[in-house]
């Protein structure tokens, strides 16, 4: 994108997020090549597409050929339908039973992971069968039916074929991100095979899926009929261990950059304190730049006197507390900083780069949490 067009798009914005369409396409094609042609690819766009904007990212994924979209709630699913996205959708999280008819009417499949939900699905499907994906708990011990439920589940589904359409069967791995600790994931797979085999024997033909980003990368035997790609689609590795094992063979491109601007510049004398509670004192005469972003926007308070941003191609450390709506950075060694300069919180600026992973680690959290907590009111600019 030309610099003049970029400036027009950011005119009037104090902070914004840039989304790289080419990076999305690169990551999608990389994952698509890793699975057989007959294996479907579900693009996980839940939680506002991991902070990347639900509808716009889903549109990109659909355009690239995603076979299904995974969302957290029916609210997200309906937002996609309102945006005229017709790709099949699976709600991965809990759906209130009173919303089952609306899910059916909008051609949205729901996850069923408890007896209460399964019985509710049968009631809702009295006129037309409701499409569900049965989630089974093979060791995550979160959502899902336990193995002891298997005979009763099969019997229930056989009795209610006219009311419940078993569109899918899936599980979720607890520790697939660690390639050096495979035993537990293999145990989960073996238990999952029992579910699949029993349902197939009973005459059902669900879309079988188990591998999320880490699972599909590290366990080809878990590709089944479909894979669910979340964090990897956004160009972020699911774990350091997975990256260490596979980075020479695979390249993922981060999709998101987070920018802001300098709103004020001032010089303070040696010994002055900065910010709430006076937690930081400068050891020299210091030039400060104020940036109008804070923990309300998603910049972690844990980065107080620990984080850094990029400005004019150089790093500027955060001084003092991260406030609700502002941070203060040290620009003493950066020549010519002025109001209106672009600041990079995540992304590239000159030859310097700050990754989402790097910011998350400095804050003591994960890139998953950091990205999904980026304020949804911040404009996402797809380019």
Automatic annotation (TrEMBL):
<protein>
    <recommendedName>
        <fullName>Alanine racemase</fullName>
        <ecNumber>5.1.1.1</ecNumber>
    </recommendedName>
</protein>
<dbReference type="InterPro" id="IPR011079">
    <property type="entry name" value="Ala_racemase_C"/>
</dbReference>
<dbReference type="InterPro" id="IPR001608">
    <property type="entry name" value="Ala_racemase_N"/>
</dbReference>
<keyword id="KW-0413">Isomerase</keyword>
<feature type="modified residue" description="N6-(pyridoxal phosphate)lysine">
    <location>
        <position position="46"/>
    </location>
</feature>
<dbReference type="GO" id="GO:0008784">
    <property type="term" value="F:alanine racemase activity"/>
</dbReference>
<dbReference type="InterPro" id="IPR000821">
    <property type="entry name" value="Ala_racemase"/>
</dbReference>
<comment type="function">
    <text>Catalyzes the interconversion of L-alanine and D-alanine. May also act on other amino acids.</text>
</comment>
<keyword id="KW-0663">Pyridoxal phosphate</keyword>
<feature type="domain" description="Alanine racemase C-terminal">
    <location>
        <begin position="255"/>
        <end position="383"/>
    </location>
</feature>
<feature type="binding site">
    <location>
        <position position="142"/>
    </location>
    <ligand>
        <name>substrate</name>
    </ligand>
</feature>
<comment type="pathway">
    <text>Amino-acid biosynthesis; D-alanine biosynthesis; D-alanine from L-alanine: step 1/1.</text>
</comment>
<comment type="similarity">
    <text>Belongs to the alanine racemase family.</text>
</comment>
<dbReference type="GO" id="GO:0030170">
    <property type="term" value="F:pyridoxal phosphate binding"/>
</dbReference>
<feature type="active site" description="Proton acceptor; specific for L-alanine">
    <location>
        <position position="276"/>
    </location>
</feature>
<feature type="binding site">
    <location>
        <position position="324"/>
    </location>
    <ligand>
        <name>substrate</name>
    </ligand>
</feature>
<feature type="active site" description="Proton acceptor; specific for D-alanine">
    <location>
        <position position="46"/>
    </location>
</feature>
<dbReference type="Pfam" id="PF00842">
    <property type="entry name" value="Ala_racemase_C"/>
</dbReference>
<dbReference type="GO" id="GO:0030632">
    <property type="term" value="P:D-alanine biosynthetic process"/>
</dbReference>
<dbReference type="GO" id="GO:0005829">
    <property type="term" value="C:cytosol"/>
</dbReference>
<dbReference type="Pfam" id="PF01168">
    <property type="entry name" value="Ala_racemase_N"/>
</dbReference>
<dbReference type="InterPro" id="IPR009006">
    <property type="entry name" value="Ala_racemase/Decarboxylase_C"/>
</dbReference>
<dbReference type="InterPro" id="IPR029066">
    <property type="entry name" value="PLP-binding_barrel"/>
</dbReference>
